[in-house]
């Protein structure tokens, strides 16, 4: 039987896939474009229970707060129903230097002898009335303090396992910038509930055929359970299967594996060693011989995994590295192996289909770009949604859709390229030479020209806003600065010292931050207490 998803003049959107990409996009579009009689769209999401979702992706970026707020999800409900905790940044261990030969593996927070470390906080460098602090830090005004510790108190707060705010209210606001860690499976259930409440039709079924029209656009999706489904816009959220964008439309995949080597992960969820254990409010990313481990604290368990390059190690050795990192809590638990190819489609929007989530591309979990790219896609689709004036004939509709696609692809393509540079920055500045993986990562031949050019410029001046085109960037100058100087990159400002005449003011600012840190620490609750507030009051 052939049926339409919904009849009438409203635009029909059909989303295939019920992972984070599908449900987040569905909920966001339903809220912003409206559904049903009072809204402008009919949105249907079909997901296959035979295939399931990837179920990893537990770290996010601060943009998630405004996305959840825009959808209308209460922060306390989100925290409670997704087992979520607060994330104030990423703590990197052993990336700049190899651990000392006699150093034991570490899971401890903060500084540990024998291990190099740095912090990428979500807070921007402090600047209220005084000068921008970075040049003065480069000229020595903060003494030996590492950059992130000199320009924000967020590292001290996170090292002490404090939350970023005093209480859950006011929702989504805090003195310190933050994102979340959460359980991906539980988040998908919450987003589904909210999307359905917002009017999204939910179908369970498997798309097993994609019928194209003479122009190469999608004419219909065939399903066993619901017959043929049609829509004005098809959103492919089918994960790595890329059922529409890849298998049917055959949009080429642009591999980035020569730059970003990681293509596999082994993952393991482990309990805390005691129920009231402190919960870190940052992701701990520890470098190893052929990749890095993530360690994420939820309220009731830890999510861990080792992301690695199959060209530099094998699966058995990767599992051994992960188990060694976790220690006794790993015993008797099975790891899960995940394979992926680093890269993205060379076009994300083709005809009347747009790919969102893993079907569009994925690099690796470092810096949590996966879900953030889903948010960006949902925001852009909502804004670009090709309504057109009523009465457009199909040629005009196709032309409007093609213009939308070109704009979307230009912006999304640039954004993916910029993310490659930022991720590679974490690797190429390493001074590790203890394995082929790190030597290859530092090989200039594996560094994109765009990043090499910037590094050459930043040897003589720090990154500034004109190095970045805001709508192409996910990571702003502050993020680059934290990683660059955390990794020990040298910017020689001495020849320009005369330009920086506010040294005393800068010293005063650095000192002021150090002075207020103990007060900030004592005014913030422990991270576990803050998280558990939602269970006490829920
Ligand atoms: P999936 O979760 O795979 O969902 C695909 C959906 O499509 C499923 O519902 C399936 O049933 C459906 N489907 C497939 N084919 C069909 C069909 N023919 N018919 C009907 N339905 C179909 N991102 C982050 O932001 N932070 C992280 O920390 C992070 N860590 C990661 C770690 C690893 C190891 C990996 C691999 C990824 C990580 N990601 C992370 C990425 C993140 O997991 C994904 O971006 C996110 O989960 C979205 O996945 P998805 O919805 O695109 O795909």
Please describe the biggest sheet, giving its number of strands, its sense, and whether it closes into a barrel: 7 strands, mixed
Tell me the fraction of residues in β-strands, as a range. 15-25%
User: Widest sheet: strand order?
Assistant: 5-4-14-15-16-13-17
End-to-end C-alpha gap: 46 Å
CATH T-level fold name of the domain at 11-54 and 195-256 and 345-408: FAD/NAD(P)-binding domain
Low-confidence stretches: 1-7
The level-1 CATH class of the domain at 11-54 and 195-256 and 345-408? Alpha Beta
Task: Please characterize this protein's 3D structure.
The chain is an alpha+beta fold and 538 residues long. It has a domain at 11-54 and 195-256 and 345-408: FAD/NAD(P)-binding domain (3-Layer(bba) Sandwich). The chain is 35% helix and 18% strand. The chain has 16 helices and 21 strands. The protein has helices at 20-33, 63-71, 75-81, 133-138, 147-151, 154-159, 184-197, 243-248, 315-326, 369-384, 394-428, 436-442, 449-458, 477-486, 503-523, 527-537; strands at residues 11-16, 41-47, 85-87, 89-93, 117-121, 179-181, 201-204, 207-212, 218-223, 227-229, 233-236, 253-255, 264-270, 283-288, 291-297, 302-308, 336-339, 343-345, 349-350, 353-355, 361-362. Strands 5-4-14-15-16-13-17 form a 7-stranded mixed beta sheet. A 6-stranded mixed beta sheet has the order 7-2-1-11-20-19. A 3-stranded antiparallel beta sheet has the order 8-9-10. Helix 1 runs parallel beside helix 7 and helix 1 runs parallel beside helix 10 (369-384). The two termini are 46 Å apart. Residues 1-7 have low confidence and may be disordered. Residues 16-22, 46-48, 51-54, 56-60, 184, 206-207, 237-239, 241, 243, 265, 305, 338, 340, 357-358, 362, 365, 368, 370-371 line the site of flavin-adenine dinucleotide (FAD). Keywords: FAD, Flavoprotein, Nucleotide-binding.
């Amino acid at each position: 039987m052939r049926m339409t998803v919904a009849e009438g003049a409203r635009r029909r959107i059909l989303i295939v896939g019920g992972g984070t990409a599908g449900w987040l996009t569905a909920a966001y579009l339903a809220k912003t474009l409206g559904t049903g009689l009072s809204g402008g769209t009919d949105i249907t999401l079909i997901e296959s229970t035979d295939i399931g979702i990837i179920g990893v992706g537990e770290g996010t970026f601060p943009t998630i707060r405004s996305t959840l707020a825009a959808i209308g999800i209460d922060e306390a409900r989100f925290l409670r129903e997704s087992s979520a905790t607060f994330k104030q940044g990423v703590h990197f261990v052993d990336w700049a230097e190899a651990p000392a030969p006699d150093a034991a593996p570490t899971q401890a927070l903060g500084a540990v002898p024998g291990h190099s470390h740095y912090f990428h906080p979500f807070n921007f460098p402090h600047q209220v009335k005084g000068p921008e602090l970075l040049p003065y830090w480069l000229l020595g005004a903060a003494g030996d303090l590492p950059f992130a510790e000199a320009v924000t108190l967020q590292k001290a707060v996170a090292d002490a396992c404090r939350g970023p705010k005093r209480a859950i209210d006011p929702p989504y606001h805090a003195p310190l910038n933050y994102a979340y860690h959460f359980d991906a499976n539980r988040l998908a259930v919450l987003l589904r509930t909210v999307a359905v409440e917002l009017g999204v039709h939910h179908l369970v079924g498997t798309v097993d055929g994609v019928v194209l029209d003479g122009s190469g656009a999608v004419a219909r999706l065939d399903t066993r359970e619901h017959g043929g489904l049609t829509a004005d816009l098809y959103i492919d959220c089918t994960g790595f299967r890329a059922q529409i964008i890849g298998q049917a439309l055959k949009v080429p995949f642009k591999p980035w594996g020569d730059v970003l080597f990681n293509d596999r992960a082994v993952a393991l969820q482990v309990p805390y060693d005691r129920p009231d254990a402190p919960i870190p409010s940052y992701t701990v990313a520890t470098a190893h011989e052929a990749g890095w481990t993530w360690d994420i604290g939820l309220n009731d368990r830890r999510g861990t995994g080792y992301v690695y390059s199959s060209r530099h190690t094998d699966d058995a050795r990767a599992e051994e590295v992960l188990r060694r990192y976790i220690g006794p809590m790993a015993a008797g638990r099975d790891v899960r192996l995940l394979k992926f190819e680093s890269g993205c489609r060379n076009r994300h929007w083709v005809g009347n289909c747009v790919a969102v989530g893993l079907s569009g591309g994925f690099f690796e979990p470092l810096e949590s770009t996966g879900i953030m790219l889903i948010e960006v896609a949902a925001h852009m689709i909502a804004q670009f949604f090709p309504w057109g004036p009523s009465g457009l004939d199909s040629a005009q509709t196709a032309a409007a859709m093609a213009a939308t696609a070109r704009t979307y692809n230009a912006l999304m393509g640039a954004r993916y390229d910029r993310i490659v540079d930022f991720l590679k920055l974490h690797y190429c500045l390493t001074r590790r030479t203890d394995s082929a993986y790190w030597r290859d990562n530092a090989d200039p031949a594996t560094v994109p020209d765009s990043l090499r050019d910037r590094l050459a410029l930043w040897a003589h001046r720090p990154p500034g806003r004109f190095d970045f085109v805001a709508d192409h960037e996910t990571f702003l100058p502050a993020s680059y600065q934290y990683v660059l100087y955390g990794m020990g990159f040298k910017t020689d400002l001495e020849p320009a010292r005369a330009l920086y005449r506010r040294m005393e003011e800068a010293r005063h600012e650095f000192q002021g931050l150090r002075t207020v840190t103990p007060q900030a620490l004592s005014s913030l609750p422990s991270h576990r207490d803050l998280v558990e507030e939602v269970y006490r009051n829920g």
